[in-house]
Design brief:
The protein has 41 residues and is mainly alpha-helical. The chain is built from one helix and no strands.
Length: 41
């Protein structure tokens, strides 16, 4: 049982650490799409 709890904590930590990267990539994609839209109109 302790092994499962430790695994769940480590997965949660990985998600927390990578959340910033996901937000950064999402923001970058939105910015590129907005720039392409403005450039085409």
């Amino acid at each position: 049982m302790q092994h499962l709890e430790a695994g769940a904590r480590s997965i949660s930590l990985l998600i927390d650490l990578n959340f910033d990267r996901l937000v950064f990539v999402g923001t970058l994609i939105v910015a590129l799409m907005a720039g392409a839209y403005m450039g085409s109109h």
